[in-house]
Amino acid sequence: MSDAVLRSSQGRIGILTINNPPVNALAAAVRDGIKAGIEAMGADPAIEAIVLIGGGRTFIAGADIREFGKPPSGANLNDVIATIENCPKIVVAALHGTPLGGGLETALGAHYRVSLKSTRVGLPEVHLGLLPGAGGTQRLPRLAGAKYALDAMISGRHIPAPEAQSKGIIDALVDGASQEELLKGAIAHAEMLVAQKAPRVRVQDRKVTLESPDLFETTKKDIARRARGFKAPWSIIECVRAAAEAKSFDEGIKRERELFVELLTSSESAAQRHYFFAEREAAKVKDVPAETKQGEIKSAGIIGAGTMGGGIAMNFANAGIPVTILEAEQAALDRGLKTIRTNYENTAKRGGMKAEDVEKRMALITPTLSYDGLKDCDVVIEAVFETMEVKEAVFKKLDAVAKPGAILATNTSGLDVNQIASYTKRPQDVIGMHFFSPANVMKLLENVRGKATSKETIATVMSLSKRIGKIPVLVGVCEGFVGNRMLRMRGIQAAYMLEEGALPQQIDKVVFDYGFPMGPFAMSDLAGNDVGWRIRQGKKEKEKRNVRYTGYIADAICELGRFGQKTGAGYYKYNLPDRTPVPDPEVEKIIEETSKKLGITRRAFTDQEILERCFYPMVNEGAKILEEGMAQRALDIDVIWVNGYGWPVYRGGPMWWADNVVGLKTIHDALLKYRDLTGDPFWEPAALLKRLVAEGKKFASV
Ligand code: 3HC
Ligand code: NAI
């Protein structure tokens, strides 16, 4: 007998304690252990009822995701749950922590469920591209009704215990906060049930409440936008339909099984499971062990209260960390604080936070015009204008006042972090924290390691990132860091394709249909075409004769004042306030005239060519980033693209997609094909890509 499930008893109550840290995932040994334990106690005349509980920090948090895709072993989870449900003794599931997925499904097989008040239950399989495949789609609607169950499974949200109790998912809340108190309460509950000769309630015997006959059709309409490209939400709807309409529970279970297997073997689910582990892995830094000493962050400072500074400050206030904002002038400071307040008030109006919390958050933010205000901060993040002269002045002043050991971070999106660090006498404390706009919303945080940045600084900033609600990825110093460096490749090809014969709407459609929220031209219109225009004017790229200029059409568009959504016109026209891009014949004319001026004969483009020219160069750049060590692993690049740029998570990110969907050889050969067609060295495959193709390996092996 393995020790994955421990057996004990108290009086006439048998206790099965799951012992599979850290989250008691349902590995084969756990499934076998529960089944054998229930069978043994069910047959033991000395036992009158059984309590099933998790050891450590949680009840079962779900199936063991690492087992998916491997040959099956151990008891089937549906059989385990059937054993619980058919046990001749009353089974009480005692829930604490996060009983999720297969964990909650196991508990739904029990005859009664009790929990701590702090427990959060849920069926989050949808985030792994799956559906609850151990009876969850059949049992939850029987307890909470079809409508509620659909919402819970399609959102995958964690449901607080009191809400779950009000929906009949949990029978009783137990006083206390610890696992020991839960066990005590669960035993008392089981004893009470025995004394009352309570029935063994099998959820499968209940009827599904179907709130309205058109529930499934209206749900499909409701989720059409947010579930675009995903498979699992649609299958969940079919399962709940089966729960409501099938002749028997077993028939519903059969349908659930078929659809579950279909999802499990889909590339969408494989991609989402990859992403689940990638996000957790990306937070770890290879040469910075988990036990590295970390600085304590009790207060923060922000320099610059503009677009980024304000959003960054909100992250700290949201996490309850006092934050001081410094500006050069009173007017800018007032403007910055006003924007922050308006943001909070709008959230409160939409019901996203309580009105009194607006004041609580604002009270954590202290405005200042003096560097003295930053002298006690544990971390200071600079978000001033993007020129080296301004950064130099700011970091020299900061170096003079910041307390020893304070972390000095820059939010630069393109300047050299090493050079910025050189303006201080403590480059080991300097790091890039590259937030994405809007900084209070976007989850991605590219933390940029300079050549002198200390391990302690890295460890502190990686864990601070999580504390302020971000998904951190560590990158190295290079132009554009990881995300923008790869984005540039797509931008270059999109611009060339316009000159060669494609139109913005055609390119955008290919990118949108792939799963991005919008294509490159709609995105440029949203961000403001003038930003890039000003940068290009500064760089005089046109004069560099060895590089093909990318800005001919973009410049022509900007010269007409078409800066994008904010001016009502860009690559598209907009009937403001409606932000739907409408293709514009005037833009087509500009594009055609530009092609003519450049002496290019326009030709037709297939969607496949657009896709290859947009995405393959990004993968190639990703390979260069890996070989230069600017990202730690291919999965780090995937996490950046999913969170910072809307790469559809069901495609895993650029590197996973290249490894597992397209194949590196296909990409390599296509790069060569375009190189030979155009003679442009842009298309030369990265050395790493060449090597991996020759060795038959994947990026994941690097
Ligand atoms: N299987 C395997 N490993 C798991 C796991 C699971 N279900 N859940 C978590 N882990 C691992 C994590 O990878 C991590 O490993 P690491 O330390 O090596 O990086 C470790 O457990 C701790 O996880 P977190 O860092 O995420 O810990 P948190 O405390 O932040 O979060 C949690 C805990 C809320 C339980 C979170 O881990 C989580 O959401 N887990 C996934 C839950 C889930 O999706 N369950 C459904 C699984 S699918 C299923 O059940 C199918 C069924 O219907 C048949
Ligand atoms: P912004 O122009 O909106 O804000 C800059 C703020 O800094 C202004 O309020 C200005 O008054 C203030 N400022 C300028 N010099 C100062 C000084 N010497 N001392 C104190 N305050 C000073 O600019 P934005 O967009 O917020 O950018 C800030 C930084 O963030 C830049 O380095 C930029 O590259 C970077 N960044 C910007 C992103 C974006 O999408 N806007 C995304 C990621 C990074």
Could you give the topology of this structure?
Blueprint: E1 5-10, E2 13-18, H1 28-42, E3 49-54, H2 77-85, E4 90-95, H3 102-109, E5 112-116, E6 120-121, H4 136-144, H5 146-155, E7 159-160, H6 161-166, E8 172-174, H7 179-195, H8 215-223, H9 232-245, H10 249-264, H11 267-282, E9 300-303, H12 307-318, E10 323-326, H13 330-349, H14 355-363, E11 365-368, E12 379-382, H15 388-401, E13 407-410, H16 417-422, E14 430-435, E15 444-449, H17 455-467, E16 471-476, H18 483-500, H19 504-514, H20 520-527, H21 529-539, H22 552-559, H23 585-597, H24 607-627, H25 634-644, H26 654-662, H27 664-678, H28 687-695
Parallel strand pairs: 2-3, 3-4, 4-5, 5-8, 9-10, 9-12, 10-11, 12-13, 13-14, 15-16
Antiparallel strand pairs: 1-2, 6-7, 14-15
Residues 22-23, 25, 61-66, 77, 98, 100-102, 105, 124-125, 128, 130, 132-134, 136, 277, 280 line the site of 3-hydroxybutanoyl-coenzyme A (3HC).
C-alpha termini separation: 39 Å
Name of the CATH homologous superfamily of the largest domain: 2-enoyl-CoA Hydratase, Chain A, domain 1
Which segments are poorly predicted (pLDDT under 50) over 5 or more consecutive residues? Answer: none
Strand percentage lies at: 5-15%
Task: Write down the domain tally.
Answer: 3
Name of the CATH first level of the largest domain: Alpha Beta
Shape: globular
CATH architecture title of the largest domain: Alpha-Beta Complex
